[in-house]
Design goal:
With 315 residues, the chain is mostly beta strands. The protein has four helices and 20 strands. The chain has helices at 2-20, 175-178, 192-195, 233-237; strands spanning 26-27, 35-38, 43-45, 63-68, 76-88, 92-93, 111-118, 122-129, 138-145, 148-158, 165-172, 182-184, 189-191, 208-211, 216-218, 221-227, 253-259, 268-274, 289-296, 303-311. The strands form two sheets. Strands 1, 2, 3, 4, 5, 6, 11, 14, 18 and 19 form a ten-stranded antiparallel β-sheet that branches. The chain is globular. 36% of the residues are buried.
Length: 315
Amino acid sequence: MKDLCFLLLVIVSLTAAAAKTPAPPFTQPLGYGPHWSVRNGLTLALHDAKVSGEPGGVPRGLIRIVYRLAPGPGGLRSLNFIAVEPCVVGDRRDFSELQRSPSDGKPGIKFWFGPVKRAKDTLRQTIRMEKFANGAHPYLIAELRADRPLEVRFEVYAEPDSAPMSMCILTATMGNFQRLRRLHLKDRVATVRDALPQDPGADFTAHAVFPLSELKSDADGVVVSADGDEENARLLSQQITTGPWWRYEGPNLTQYWRQPKPVDRDLRVLVNARKTYYGGVAPIPGGMAFENFEMNAAFHPGQAFVFGIKPAPKG
């Protein structure tokens, strides 16, 4: 009887200790393709990862920034996609989402996870990719941090067989999902109509370019952010006549790019816009919105750019 009581006491003690042990800050569920999640924050995913809220049709050649936009099993959605667009000397720019794979000829450069390094509160995941048609062959290291769960830090490097790159641009390609229309600069807020007054028809506008002198500086480096101008984005989402994947039903969020110190002296921000959803002529409710949103500068190995989100300010 004493032995049984002792055994029960050990089981209770182990159960209590397990209950007090915090969940790991980074998780990678088995059987759901390549992705990592940081506790209470973002999920970083590649092409074939299954995410419960996705309606399907996720393109290849993009890094997915996934966030919980609503409660329940269908609330996880790709808030934005990060494309890799290297330029070689001479400024020929290739596009990871649009270029055909050199291995199978299908649209989209193949990405895959390479080595990962985990520390207590930091995860560094290598993202490798196929070589681009212009000869560029970059790779990235994506860093997730438990103390910054709503950010992903990207460092850019070149494989040994890469052609010399003048730039390796990381661009957030899906601003039209949240209908981002305001760009927060150092001394002003530039609306999409201010920055890009031309009518794009069913295509993209040209890029608006903002140099380093127009960007905000803070203790963490240089930052530029974009948000929507709708009090409740769910209302206009009901007007969308194209596929359900464009219906944004999440909270008002600010999306931003930041370059940590040391800041590149030639750093600049570029945005373009559309008034119809990509791939068709369905109008964007409320009018034109930013689509591609990027920081860029002359390439050097280890160059860092941070993509993040935060609740949008009211008003």
